[in-house]
Write a structure and sequence with these properties.
By secondary structure, the chain is mainly alpha-helical. It is built from three helices and no strands. The protein is elongated, with a radius of gyration of 26 Å. The termini are far apart.
Length: 87
């Protein structure tokens, strides 16, 4: 059987092409565009995944129904913890 050629999926060729464009271009925004290409898209994808997780979490029923005010409960717990740690 004939072996298939391996395809470089690391993005090395793309990064080299971007570096070449950045080195030869007079556009002051090339660096900004390269930064967006490398870091903007993954960040957007991560934020989208995170917001989806928060929406799903918000749909869940309350867990601690015996606590009337969750914020006050947390503050009280932290005050008690601070007293124990300072003693």
């Amino acid at each position: 059987m004939k072996q298939r050629k391996r395809v470089d999926r690391s993005g090395k060729q793309t990064l080299l092409a971007l570096a070449k464009i950045g080195a030869t271009s007079d556009d002051p925004y090339v660096s900004e565009n390269i930064d967006h290409y490398l870091y903007g898209a993954p960040k957007k994808k991560r934020l989208k995944k995170r917001s989806r997780a928060f929406r799903e979490l918000a749909k869940l029923p309350p867990t601690f129904t015996h606590i009337p005010d969750g914020a006050e409960y947390i503050h009280e717990q932290r005050r008690e913890e601070d007293k124990l740690n300072s003693a």
